[in-house]
Design brief:
Number of strands of chain A: 4
Shape of chain A: flat
Distance between the termini of chain B: 19 Å
Number of helices of chain A: 1
Helix content of chain B: 25-40%
Largest interface: A-B, 17 and 23 residues
Structural class of chain B: alpha+beta
Number of domains of chain B: 2
Number of helices of chain B: 5
Strand order of the largest sheet of chain B: 4-5-6-7-8
Strand content of chain B: 25-35%
Radius of gyration of chain A: 16 Å
Order of helices and strands of chain A: EEEEH
Order of helices and strands of chain B: HHEEEHHEEEEEH
Oligomer: heterodimer
Largest sheet of chain B: 5 strands, antiparallel
Strand content of chain A: 15-25%
Largest sheet of chain A: 2 strands, antiparallel
Radius of gyration of chain B: 17 Å
Structural class of chain A: alpha+beta
Chain lengths: 64, 187
Amino acid sequence: MAEDARQDDPTVLNGDRLFRRVQAHPNQLFTEPDGSKRPSSAVFKVTELSVNIESVMVDFLDGI
Amino acid sequence: MATVAYNFYQTDVFGPQNQQAISSLVNNQSTDVFARRERRATAASEPLPHRVKVRIPLDGESIELTYLDSVLPAWAEPVLSSLPERWGATPGWDGYHARPTSVQLVVRLLNILSTVMLGGYQPPQIMPLADGGVQAEWHRGQRDLEIVVSADEAPSYYFFDHDTGEEEEYTLEQREDRVRDLIGGLS
């Protein structure tokens, strides 16, 4: 079996929150009985998940 | 219920070639109640008894499914009706790199649901997966249940009770009774 080339990235802190962009589309949102919607767990079932790192976003916004 | 289903899912009738295919499927795959039928332009003929044909429109095209019984079960109507908007029709439908939803995997999930759903059970909501698979979800109170049919792994289920911390995740094989009980508890 090939070795997984992915390594832990220590620059991403354990306490960092990660954000995943989810589209406001019925195929990504579960509809609650009261009509409200929330992301389905299906949107996180991806082998390689692109996310935004909260601390990086904050640093970027602070620099604007 | 049956009348609504038949009216809503009115489809083309199949020609002789497809009728043969349906007969063969009945003989050889009696456990699978849903089967995909490819759409063909055919002359009209008498519809077969004990079949419900369902056309699902998808982005200008459509797929047809055949249900091998005379009446759709109650759970199937809302599930099938939801599929057009719960379908990943084009590559990247999730805004990233998702594969289009696989008809074969949807049919597999429908057949699983046919096995585990009983009368009065709450229909699940269907969600596409980025790998072309699909999952059925129930959430009630603090309890979550998912049946997952992915492209690369055996069908599985996941259950979590936020109040008690009870958690289960197994392949579905030979655990249909347990899943049936879990759905019943969420209905």
